[in-house]
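Audit log entry. Action: structure prediction of a protein-small molecule complex. Ligand: zinc ion. The ligand was supplied as SMILES and no pocket hint was given, so placement is left entirely to the predictor. Protonation state taken as written. Sequence taken verbatim from the request; no trimming, no tag removal. Recorded inputs:
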Amino acid sequence: MKAGLGLAVLVGVGLASATGQHAAAQAAEARAGESQTVVRDDWAVDTVLADMSAAKKAEEEKAAAEKAAAEAAAAEEARLAALPWTLPSDARITSYYGMRDGRLHGGTDFGDFEGEEIWSVGEGTVSYVGYEPGGYGNVVYIDHGDGIQTRYAHASKVLVKVGDKVAKGETVILAGNTGGSRGPHLHFEVLIGGKKVDSLAWLEKQGLNPG
Ligand SMILES: [Zn+2]
């Protein structure tokens, strides 16, 4: 009985041992498979995380750029508001001051459409309102003091009269095509001491960014 039991125990141990070895091998195999899977999963997770991180970073960079642009725009708006002068129009420039067909084009042309509002570039007093068929058409002169005068020509409509005090940015005419004009636009002049100067260069010198 004792021996039998011993044998049974030995066999049992042997079986257990064999089973144990088999299980260990299976486990190792499983681990190998598992570890392969885990490696792939880790790689995929890393890739996904990296993509997400890159997307998040790009989003953050975009948001930061938008914030910076908004801040720059606000700062520029504040800077322009603090200047004593403004643009007469935000339309793009279609013709510059300079010699044209042997004659001086004494102003800057802005490509305003018929009826668009044109603003006084600074505080001043309306010194002349007239109609000149071959030239300015309906025109307004504004005296800003210190020998500075501005002129706004080819108006479809004049909204001020001589003697009116105007503020910087106040609408003085509506753009048009009157006088010697081929298509609606604003012809804008600056005179200093009675002499026409390059009005675009003058605007830029005041810190403005004409279009
Ligand atoms: Zn012109």
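Audit: result stored. Residues 4-16 have pLDDT under 50 and may be disordered. Residues 95, 105, 107, 109, 187 surround zinc ion (CB under 6 Å).
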